[in-house]
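PROTEIN DESIGN WORKSHEET
SECTION A - STRUCTURE
LENGTH: 302
TOKENS:
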């Protein structure tokens, strides 16, 4: 059952999953949720909504407790909301399509021990839902291949021209928390002679460091994307400028230590802007890789 009511700036969503009716109210960037069970299970389902994101847990399922994460596809916007969904292993993530078009959701081709450890590809029809259970900790970077393109040169998702929120791409992140073996203590990232970071995603152990070297002419800045709360950007990381070759022969290297586990989402404010509605970095026309934003992620393991 999928029932969506739009009233002014508030969306009321009702969805039946595993016999539970989940009621989620979105408004002004926040969300609240309630769960009812039409079969009158004696132990009611519980709901938590951290960081403005609906992550729902329920009891009374004959197979035991079930955690559910919800990603909305709003009508006529061609984005995923939220952009970053944080869940635990064994969570069922549901994509709800409130749009007037079908969407093809797939992981990006890049993969490692922490990036896209499970690949997927699925179609979500108009007014329908798709679901996947995530069992392996890591970052899952996915996009809609009908509204965005995988740039093979930059290894980034780029918005198709003409999408409603261009240059914002229809891309999303599922972060499945949990221990990942073998994370290094130190990672080197770079800023090549174009407006991007060499690696979009890096991962280190807690207390580890990331070294950024700027091989381009321009000075670049590492700054956290605002309006996220723990476990995303869980600790204050100072805004850091890294001089380019126009100001320093061979460019500058800056090293940042990350003592607190979490997912750090950052961007270069000199070559990207912020979409305040979806709390995302987006490309600017002066950026060499436009419409791709100059953004990146650091996963710090526990």
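SECTION B - SEQUENCE
RESIDUE ASSIGNMENT:
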């Amino acid at each position: 059952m999928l029932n969506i009511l739009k009233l002014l700036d508030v969306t009321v969503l009702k969805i039946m999953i595993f016999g539970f009716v989940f009621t989620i109210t979105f408004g002004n960037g926040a969300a609240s949720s309630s769960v009812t069970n039409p079969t009158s299970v004696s132990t009611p389902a519980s709901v938590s909504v951290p960081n403005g994101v609906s992550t729902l847990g329920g009891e009374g399922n004959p197979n035991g407790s079930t955690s559910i994460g919800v990603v909305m596809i709003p009508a006529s916007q061609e984005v995923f909301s939220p952009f970053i969904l944080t869940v635990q292993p064994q969570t069922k993530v549901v994509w709800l399509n409130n749009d007037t078009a079908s969407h093809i959701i797939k992981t990006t081709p890049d993969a490692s021990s922490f990036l896209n450890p499970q690949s997927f590809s699925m179609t979500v029809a108009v007014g329908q839902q798709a679901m996947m259970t995530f069992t392996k900790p890591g970052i899952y970077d996915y996009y809609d291949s009908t509204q965005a393109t995988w740039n093979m040169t930059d290894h980034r998702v780029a918005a198709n021209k003409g999408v409603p929120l261009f240059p914002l791409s229809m891309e999303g992140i599922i972060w499945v928390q949990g221990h990942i073996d073998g994370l290094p203590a130190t990672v080197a990232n770079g800023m090549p002679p174009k407006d991007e970071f060499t690696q979009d995603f890096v991962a280190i152990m807690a207390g580890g460091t990331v070294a950024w070297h700027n091989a381009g002419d321009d000075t670049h800045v590492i700054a956290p994307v605002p309006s996220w709360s723990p476990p995303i950007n869980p600790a204050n990381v100072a805004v850091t400028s890294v001089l380019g070759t126009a100001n320093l022969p061979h460019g500058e290297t800056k090293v940042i230590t990350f003592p607190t586990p979490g997912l750090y989402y950052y961007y270069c404010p000199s070559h990207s802007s912020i979409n305040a509605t979806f709390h995302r970095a987006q490309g600017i026309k002066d950026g060499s890789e436009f419409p791709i934003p100059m953004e990146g992620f650091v996963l710090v393991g526990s």
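SECTION C - NOTES
The longest strand covers residues 10-17.
The domain at 2-176 is CATH 2.60.40.420 (Immunoglobulin-like).
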